[in-house]
Amino acid sequence: MEKQLHLNLLASRPPMAGGFQSSSKMKMGPGRKRDFSPLPWSQYFETMEDVEVENENGKDIFRIYCSGSHGPVLLLLHGGGHSALSWAVFTAVICSRINCRVVAMDLRAHGDTKVKNPEDLSADTMAKDIGKVVEVLYGENPPPIMIIGHSMGGAIAVHTATANHIPSLLGLCVIDVVEGTAMDALNSMQNFLRSRPKTFKSLENAIEWSVKSGQIRNIESARVSMGGQVKKCEESSSSPGVSHSIGEGIIEEEEDEEVEEESNKKRMKEDDQEIKKESIFTWRVQLSKTEKYWDGWFRGLSALFLTCPVPKLLLLAGVDRLDKDLTIGQMQGKFQMQVLPQCGHAVHEDAPEKVADALATFMVRHKFTEFKEGYLC
Fold first, then answer.
1. Which one of 2, 211, 236, 279 has the largest count of C-beta atoms within 10 Å of its C-beta?
2. Region of poorest pLDDT, from 77-91, 252-266, 311-325
3. Could you give the 3-state DSSP secondary structure of residue 109?
4. Active-site residue 345, yes or no?
5. 0.70 surpassed by pTM
6. pLDDT tens for residues 193-250?
7. Are 251 and 205 in contact (CB under 8 A)?
8. Enclosing H/E stretch for 149
């Protein structure tokens, strides 16, 4: 059971106990039709911007989403396969709690970021990317910055902090990634990635899958963030294998098991005709191809986290995530920890208000900022 809970470190795995059922046949209740239509980024962030960074091979362009005009900067780093949009609902909540500025960025090869070498997802390269984006945004005198990362982004946040790529670093918050359980989970990650649908009939279909599978338990967050995880297929819809993989998606899975063979054939023929008219969506990031970097993201992470000299906050979906080094460090008071139960791996998406409350309290306690006037904590 513990291993299953930690297979989410690159991409969120459906929870096997509590919360949403893992079965795709989960019923939503009689007469209740849920809205799986996508929501725009502009409902949660104030601005969207492309930041150009000079590199040896030319220019890399990083997509960022921003909110707020004063206070410390919260630099938000998403997990593997996700995008800055995974922070959308959280951003709206945290900006209502404290005086702060938010910068959520699409990491290398993720979301709408475009780089010359998207194959290089090493911790060192991604940490340098973050330092360069901060330099372009703020020059030689950046404002105080609190770096916050989830899963892979949490690991990259630690590497960024320990390499001193952000000289004005105020604090560090890592969400649901711990070295011990991360390393244990990597052996099973490829099997999990193969178990996901390869394509979706539409963005709505992808959103529906993410909610009903339990990848994202908050339907509002799924509606804004899944657009950053999937994209329209570049290949023709008549390409071999496309209709087959669609058949493995959630729409097909919800049919009763006792459907007659003749009805199956008829439906497949209708689906083939329908597919030709529709856009097919697939994952933006082929996470299985990033395997050679997994060890570098997570090995030694606990020791690095503990050596960061700034105040640190660790938010976990379950107390069983702690490994030996962090258990000792926590007993020694080297960081603050909070467990947010009833959450899946995407803690900040499943419970944005709880994460915002924990972070706001942490930042006010350390005198990094103040609660907004009129906000009752």
1. 211
2. 252-266
3. coil
4. yes
5. yes
6. 889 999 999 999 999 999 999 999 999 999 999 999 999 986 544 443 343 333 333 3
7. yes
8. strand 145-150
Active site residue 271: no
Q: Which amino acid, one-letter code, is at 370?
A: E
CA–CA gap between residue 99 and residue 94 (Å, rounded):
9
Q: What is the 3-state secondary structure (H, E, C) of 226-266?
A: HHHCEEECCCCCCCCCHHHHHCCCHHHHCCCCCCCHHHHHH
Token pair of 145 as six digits: 């910055």
Catalytic annotation present for 151 = yes
Query: Which amino acid appears at position 351 of this protein?
Result: A
The three-class DSSP label of residue 197 is coil
Q: Select which of 6, 78, 345, 348 is catalytic.
A: 345
Residues 6+ apart with CB under 8 A from 34: 28, 208, 211, 219
CB-based contacts of 37, cutoff 8 Å, min separation 6: 204, 207, 223
Measured between alpha carbons, how far is 72 from 138 in angstroms, rounded to an integer?
12
Out of 12, 83, 86, 151, the active site residue is 151
Tokens of 188: 């099973």
